[in-house]
Amino acid sequence: MSLAVGLVFAVGTFVEMYLLTVLSGYISILNTLSFIMFTFLIGIIIGRSWGKEDFEKMQWHLKSRSIPGDDALNGSVLGLSSMLLITPGVVTDLIAVFILIPITRDIFKNIAANMAKNRIASGDLYYFFKD
Are the C-beta atoms of 77 and 109 separated by less than 8 Å? Predict the structure, then answer.
């Protein structure tokens, strides 16, 4: 498992760096750095709005073995969007923007709900890490 995770991070980093290099070739290095800082600030703003408390709601639902409500799922995927915006890169920013759009956010909420259902069915009480 750790080899697969390491491989995903290595390939993901390579792809992100390549795309940032290509982007800087089109819009200049200064504009690319400005783009990275702008998405970082947007991610911070979103993270402060929907942050830790929504992940704690999700954790509480899992511990009580109930399916998370719509507000917990919405906040959790918006928190994920915030984390993706903070991470510099083109692919992570595109995924985060798709999460921010309300029409496509339902797709990510369904993925999160299915993950929670699988965790509950397997008896795992933690969504990410133990307290």
Answer: yes
